[in-house]
Amino acid sequence: MKGTVLEAVVEDELPRGLYAVRSEDGRRFVASLPIRSRHSIVKLLRGDRVMIEVSPADTSRARITARAGD
């Protein structure tokens, strides 16, 4: 089951490889990187625009799928 895809901005880096992101409509999510991205050197900075997929089970959680514009 796929979740909703949104564009968001990275607000902060959290412990354990998580990021606080805010969508264009103002909602805040705790987002993680996919496992394949964690194994390569990927660093997101505050202000980076990313595409996220919101979890259908917990709407406060999301997965970062790509940098917006990449």
UniProtKB/TrEMBL annotation:
Q: Which GO terms describe its molecular function?
A: RNA binding; translation initiation factor activity
Limits of the S1-like domain: 1-69
Keywords, sorted A to Z: Initiation factor, Protein biosynthesis
Keyword Lipid metabolism annotated: no
What the entry lists under SUPFAM superfamilies is as follows: Nucleic acid-binding proteins
Q: Which Pfam family, an example, fits this chain?
A: eIF-1a
What InterPro entries does the database record attribute to this sequence? NA-bd_OB-fold (IPR012340), RNA-binding_domain_S1_IF1 (IPR006196)
Question: Does the keyword Metal-binding feature in the UniProt annotation?
Answer: no
Q: What is this protein called?
A: S1-like domain-containing protein
